[in-house]
């Protein structure tokens, strides 16, 4: 299963869901509490606006964190997602508390009544978005499926799936397939971000196609990644351990 949505579309959908949640919750609060003397529509609007506006950068950072967890700890991905989700909700509660306190709504930085309000309903909405982001990250493809490279002066567009590994050499990158090599002027660190999670960085000079990895080997103090073609690439000290 592969999700073809871009991150931009996912963020737009997430914001749309937050807005719908805002409207429905505001309507529900009005119907339920409109006859209570302590109820204020304005306070509900402020609380819910914080839940929407503040959570937009949170969901973006959440997706980046989840991509990191997927790349580095793929086997324990969902366990770490649950732990990080609890941490994200806790941090969001504290951060929104501080903002509301600075606006004069609370006397203290941690308000018990707001805790009941947030964890009674808003936290559930945010948890749904966090888990939706985790599913998106788990099954999404790399933003790039083909890449433009050069053979001499000839410009070629080729599928990334054909590339076994990429090696940095000066200001250029060498792209190696099963039987040929190509070149492109680009920085490895920039390309690595574009090609994750299908390609992983194992060395300051090497980027490797996950699907081509066969095993890892140790030779004294050095560790190597072995590709299905038999090619051995040294793993950099700062890139260990390699989770593939």
UniProtKB/TrEMBL annotation:
Any transmembrane segments, and where? 12-33, 39-65, 77-103, 123-140
Could you confirm whether the keyword Thylakoid appears in this record? no
Signal peptide residues are none
Database matches in Pfam families: LytTR (PF04397)
Listed A to Z, the keywords are: Membrane, Transmembrane, Transmembrane helix
Q: Would you say which domain of life the source belongs to?
A: Bacteria
Domain HTH LytTR-type span(s) in chain numbering: 147-244
Q: Does the keyword Membrane apply?
A: yes
The record ties this protein, via InterPro entries, to: LytR-like, LytTR_DNA-bd_dom
Tell me the protein's name. Answer: LytTR family transcriptional regulator
Q: What is the lineage of its organism?
A: Bacteria, Pseudomonadati, Bacteroidota, Flavobacteriia, Flavobacteriales
